[in-house]
Write a structure and sequence with these properties.
By secondary structure, the protein is an all-alpha fold. It has one domain (5-105). 64% of the residues lie in helices and 0% in strands. The protein is built from four helices and no strands. The protein has helices spanning 5-22, 30-48, 63-81, 93-105. α1 packs antiparallel against α2. The mean pLDDT is 94.
Length: 107
């Protein structure tokens, strides 16, 4: 099966959430990080599908701003989850590259 870029990004994020986070994360802040990861998946879904309320990428309602805030607040966590040994069919570093490109654009 051939996947589009957005399919790969979302599939990778969901696989890592289910395989590496839900089934493998054991730190004491599981509930907090669970919320962070879910907000990340929602914002990523909105971004790749262009679901938005307005066209301003710096608006508080934009998926770009949400992804940037999540990344800046939890970069170490996401780098760990999307590392080279993540249990996913696709290259997890593509998700990191994509998020970093969004962060760079909004600076």
């Amino acid at each position: 099966m051939t996947y589009t870029r957005k399919d790969v990004l979302l599939k990778t994020a969901i696989e890592i959430y289910e395989n590496d986070f839900v089934c493998g994360y054991s730190d004491n802040d599981f509930d907090e990080k669970n919320k962070v990861f879910m907000h990340f998946i929602i914002a990523l879904t909105k971004k790749v599908n262009n679901f938005r309320y307005c066209s301003d990428k710096n608006c508080i309602c934009s998926p770009e701003r949400k992804l940037k805030r999540l990344w800046e607040g939890h970069e170490g966590f996401f780098r760990n989850m999307f590392g080279q040994y993540a249990l996913t069919e696709h290259d997890p570093l593509k998700v990191i590259d994509y998020i970093e490109s969004i962060v760079r654009e909004s600076e």
